[in-house]
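Re: flavin-adenine dinucleotide structure - here you go.
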Amino acid sequence: MGTLSRLARRLADLVGAHRAALQPAVCGPGIAKLGATPLDGLPSVGLARLRGTHLKYFAPSTVEEAVGLLAQPNTKVFAGATDVIPQIRAGRPEPDALVDLKKIDRLIAVQCTDAKWIIGAATPTARLTANAEFSAEFPGLAEAAGLIGSDQVQSRSSLGGNLCNASPAADSVPAMIVNGARVVIATANGGTRSVAVQDVPTGPGRTSLAPGEFVVEIEVDRAPARTADAYLRMIPRTEMDIAVVGVGVRVTLDESGKVTDALVALGAVAPTVVRVPAAEAALIGSTLDDAALAVAAAAASAACNPIDDKRGTIAYRTHVAGVLTRRAAVIAGQRAAEKNGASR
Ligand SMILES: Cc1cc2nc3c(=O)[nH]c(=O)nc-3n(C[C@H](O)[C@H](O)[C@H](O)COP(=O)(O)OP(=O)(O)OC[C@H]3O[C@@H](n4cnc5c(N)ncnc54)[C@H](O)[C@@H]3O)c2cc1C
């Protein structure tokens, strides 16, 4: 049985894929009936005491219900649980309760307006990459989301989870950052606030979200004319591995093919994603010629502050960051040129 199959079975065992399966009346042999807890009396949602733990499961159907549940101490949200469950299994301190965001319609919706895309934070990444219009407009972000784990992982994994797990190697984060993505956060007082994606992770496993807050949506403005992105990563294995370097680049061209705007973001080379203004400056005004690409690559390498571990040395990560920056810039430039003046 593959890793994800085991994960999915474990997930179904622990928190259940369906709310009905978690009602005390239909508890199977492995799921005990609930006792009184500090969380009792909250909205009637799926709830179970889990086998061998005191972990409980809630499945609110509205943002407001979720905010109410998160007012209780030591309560944690999840979407796909593709990080949460392995971490619990690995012995990370358990919360008292998990709040499933996937039953809230707004969190699993993908909408496109004239101005922006609005992606529910718990939307399975497979649903996003299957969206042809989105993938055509943001091929780099779609390819980053499409690199997360396997098909099975992507049937559950979300952009909100990838971001808020706050791994420096999270694939979608550099790609979201070069596209200027923002998150809408539900706050503990029942309101919302909006922040740039790059301001969410503050270090490995840490975010700027306050207790009781969670991400509702990710917003990405519609791509301007002759603008395209690309995401490339290096992994030691051919599949199912974590980036030792990930690079997102987005460029905008004028009608003559000259770069008028550029964004470069590096993953897995520092505690949080690194924007590289010197690489962006080298690309802007160029036609993505060799000289400009060489300066951008050197700037990307210079911006790295990576760890040295069995998966990649500091020297290796630093070198690869430059190589991938050059390649991603070329791909983004080709894609932008192919748009041939079409707005999207
Ligand atoms: C086999 C396997 C392979 C993987 N490969 C990759 C890979 O190649 N690249 C990669 O980047 N990742 C990879 N991952 C990690 C994981 O799949 C991704 O990080 C995924 O995007 C997490 O999404 P999720 O919805 O499952 O997050 P969850 O596990 O549900 O949550 C992750 C964290 O984010 C928090 N969270 C979730 N949603 C929200 C929200 N809306 N607001 C606030 N906090 C929230 C949770 O509390 C938790 O701390 C892999 C995982 C597995 C098991």
